[in-house]
Amino acid sequence: MEALVAIYQIVDMLATIFIWLIIIQFVIGLLFAFNVINSSNQFLASFYTSINNFLEPVLGPIRRRLPETGGIDFSPLVVIIGLQVLLIVLAAVLRSAT
Known about the structure:
This protein is mainly α. The chain contains 3 helices and no strands. It is elongated.
C-alpha cells in the first residue's frame, strides 16, 4: 500500500512539473509575441527553446491530431486536462485499494 502512495506522489510531482513547464512556455511565448521581451534576449530565447524541445514530443502528436483552429494551439490545454484526469483516476484507484 505504501508503494502505491509513493508511486502516486511521484506521478503527481512529475505532472505538476510538466504543467508548470507548459505554463512557463505559454507565458514566455506571449511575452515574445507582444514584444514585451525582445526575442534577442539570449537567456530567455535559449530557455524557451529548451522548454519547446522538451515538450514537443508530447505536444506535437496531440497538435497533429487536433483540428485546425485558426492559429490557436489547444494541445497544451489537452495535455493539462489529460494529466489532471490521470491524477484523479490514480487517486480513485489508490482510495479503492485501501
